Amino acid sequence: MLQPIPKSKFKAYLRATIKFLSSLKLAVIVILSIATVVAVGTFVEAKLDAAAARKLVYNTFWMYSVMGLLAINLIAVMVDRWPWKARHTSFVLAHIGILVLMAGSIITQRYGLDGSLRVAVGGQSQYVILPSETDVLVYTTFDGDRYTKLAEKPVDFYLNPPTAEKPMVVAGYTGEIKFVDFKPYVIPARKVTAPKELNGRRGAGLRFQIQNQNIKVNVIEWLVQLRPNHLVTHDFGPAKLHLGPAPEKGNGVNEIFFTPQAGGDLKYVVYQKDSEKPLKTGSLKEGEVFNPGWKMPIEVRALRYLPEAEEDWDLQEREAPTPLTTSAVKLTFNGQEQWLILNDTIKLFSNDIVYVVSYGNRRIDLGFPIKLTKFTMDRYQGTNKAMEYKSNVEVPDLGGHLISMNEPLKYRGFTIYQASFEENPNTGEPTASVFSVNQDPGRWIKYLGSLIISLGIIMLFYFKKKANKGKPS
Amino acid sequence: MKRLQIILLLLLSLMVCSAFAAPGEALRYLPVQNSGRIKPYDTFAKEMLEIVYGKPSFEGRGATEIILTWMLSPTAWENKKIFEVRNHEVLKALKLPLEQRYFAGQELFANEQFQMLQQELQAKRDSKEKFTPYFQALQRLENQLGVFRGIAGGHMLNIVPPKEGTTWLSVADLQGPQQEAFMGLTKSFVDYIGAIAQGVSKEQATTAGQALDESVLKFREVAKSNNPELYSNDAKINTEVHYNHFHPFRWAYILYMLASIMLLLVWSMDKPNLMKFAWILAGLGFVLHTYGFGVRMYLMDRAPVTNMYETVVWMSWGAVVFSGVLEIIYKFRVVFFAGTLGAMVALIIADSAPAVLDPSLQPLEAVLRSNYWLTIHVMTITISYAAFFLAFILGDIGLIYYIKGEEKYQAKLQIIATSVYRAMQIGIAFLAPGIILGGIWADYSWGRFWGWDPKETWALIALLGYLAVLHGRLGGWFKNFGMIAAGVITFSLVIMAWYGVNFVLGAGLHTYGFGAGGVEYVGAIVLAHFLLVVYASIVRKK
Description:
The structure holds 2 protein chains of 2 kinds.
Chain A: H1 7-21, H2 24-47, H3 50-58, H4 61-80, H5 89-111, E1 113-120, E2 124-141, E3 148-155, E4 168-171, E5 176-193, E6 205-212, E7 217-224, E8 232-235, E9 240-243, E10 255-260, E11 266-271, E12 278-284, E13 289-290, E14 299-306, E15 310-317, E16 326-333, E17 336-341, E18 344-349, E19 354-379, E20 386-395, E21 399-404, E22 409-411, E23 414-423, E24 430-439, H6 443-470
Parallel strand pairs in A: 9-10
Antiparallel strand pairs in A: 1-24, 2-3, 2-19, 4-5, 5-15, 5-16, 6-7, 6-14, 8-9, 10-11, 11-12, 13-14, 16-17, 18-19, 19-20, 20-21, 22-23, 23-24
Helix pairs in contact in A: 2-3, 2-4, 4-5, 5-6
Chain B: H1 2-19, E1 31-34, E2 37-40, H2 41-53, E3 57-58, E4 61-62, H3 63-72, E5 81-84, H4 88-93, E6 102-104, H5 105-109, H6 112-127, H7 133-152, E7 158-160, E8 169-170, H8 176-198, H9 202-226, H10 234-246, H11 248-268, H12 275-300, H13 308-330, H14 334-352, H15 371-404, H16 410-445, H17 454-474, H18 480-489, H19 491-505, H20 519-541
Antiparallel strand pairs in B: 1-2, 3-4, 5-6, 7-8
């Protein structure tokens, strides 16, 4: 039978525990541990990137436990000094301030939102992308028009990469979709191939070349339809090339529609500028060249034509991320393997059903659209160096508003900051503005904590002065 | 007092001299548009020569002369060794001798390997990977070539304001009367340097100089008539030329050096009557230091704390202020000695390593264009480094006493340890709010209070390091030796936060201050101090 601990003994234990938890020794150990852990984090960030440092160091069990120990230590030392005297003011304030600051940070982390939102110039958007959260979504369709959601899973492949032995499995109606491999840093290159078996539900693929020796034009690209009768376009500036159904009338621009025919033929219709009527029609076979007949002297060649095309990726793996790398996950389904790139979608086919699988950053609906009416960038005189950039936006109720660097918009609980922009690499014209969107319910708590800490530091000097005055010189 | 009067007179005459230019000097004041601002030709020439040659003068001839001759007779420069290449890997790739440091354009760019290196650099650029020192060196080489060709071809010297828009017309764009006026300028320039080179009499040189000045003024009139509004910043131009030649920080460190010698005598030889001289010398140095700081502020319309060079200048200013205040309160002498000595060392380093600590005046990145926050947050953090720097210098002084013999200097060591403690307290009192202010600015302009960015993280680590020391002192584990050693050791955290994040880690959002170079020197200094602490503790135990 267990003996209840005598009250006096219990008190002694409690006192000893508090003594240890409130000890300066523990304080110094905790301070040095935090310093060490976060220092490691900065090296991880230098080697990899900020997201990796967050996942591998800052948001880990180790970091949380050492921070928890700090909180316990701070509370224990204040309990230990009870009842407080006037000379304890700065010590108590600084310690309470740190605790409040930590509480605010926890609230921010749990309930806050920090994402980015990209709006094309003249366009609008209401979806915020969360860079640190990823989901896998699986939809099915029988007829290609109506889709039903089969699965939605939050995943963290970076920390828990699937393997062939331990795959992540999504059960379909006809077999399992298995996620069997993950590569965090790859440079993908698109690869289009002919499938082993035709099923009539894939789109066609055309690899074309536009060439002119005199004016040094040489464009080689793939056009791949997502499904039969889908229209896909390549715009190379002076003309557009489409793969898909052709309209009866042209749009008054230089364009060619390539339309796949049953039986594997490829027909084309050429339209020209300022006219609705077709300029030229005909059919084209792999390897053949034709002149569209526009004023500019170019030739179009069909390098490869696949009535049914399958897309996959050639992946170049990298040790560390660069602005060109992304992550990719490998799936198997019905004995076939395929890579899926972050923020991309693939189709998997079984006899009757098509599965659409996507892997991407989580999108949050703001509940209102942000319209970008104008984007301006000022540059330092005589250079390309950005001096200031600003976005004229429109939101419901408020109407127009100007967001610039260091001047965010606060609206419906969100704060919308000017983060960066995208520009056309050839012309230098800005094409889109990127905002960072943030909701931080812990903000005022953190500010309060900061204020208390600062007060504590000021008090330290105030009391020191008093103490010095009291001393005989 | 007499000595003071002499010093004051000396200074005054120096300032007067630099205000009235000698004949032939008007060219220096010619406004040039370059890297996003209008600067005097004097600055432009100096910066361009530093990019190419690494020094502001070539074979004893000033940059203002060299740069113009690149344009007037580029072929004469083809075989002159004006391109500085320091990276051995690059030299190996170009199959050039490693022990040589300066090369002629012929050797470098006519080299078959050079084109391959350019392609290699472009491939690296396309891959968007971080540049290793080798690629940074290649990039510099490409930049050196670009600058030389840009100047030789007249595209880089933008000297006439446009009628519309903001991009100034370069020498290559000039037409009609503008071109004529510029031809006139170059003609009298050639006459002038020809006269100087031939060693003509002083009068003849003066006449040639005056002719050059006249043609510069004539050209300025023509240029101004194109767009008078854009050509009206004479006050700033004149100030900048004055700043370039006056070297206020150099005068400041000379005065600090004299002050620290006085203070050393006061402190170690016990000569208190020298104290007022120390105050006067340090005060004069401080005035010049502040003046230089103020001039930079006036020229750029912002607080000059946006790169390593500027923060070193500001930090040393803070070291003098803090040590002066502590001197007034405690009369410890040694603190003021450490402050002036430290400021002198810091200013000498800033003055002698332009490749790492870039003293040129550069426009700000877009994200930093918030004067209010920039000023408050950066200045608060870097001034805290001044207090820690003070503790560091004091620690060094303390270690020397430990090595000389602990028993003999007990009283002095007690004072030093107390001073280290005070300096650390001041540092924490600025660093903690500085970090918080950084959080507030980050929240205000990026949308997050704390993001574990390496710069902010290392500032926090430095703070935690000093907090650990203060708590250790509170717990009685750190006695005098502990405090003195901690003053030296803990400063390596500040070096990491201040220099290391930008120059070693090279990651994060604070990229605008990133640079390269000097890692081996800084690493050696840190290591040497660790060894000094170890040695002192061994000596002490004996």
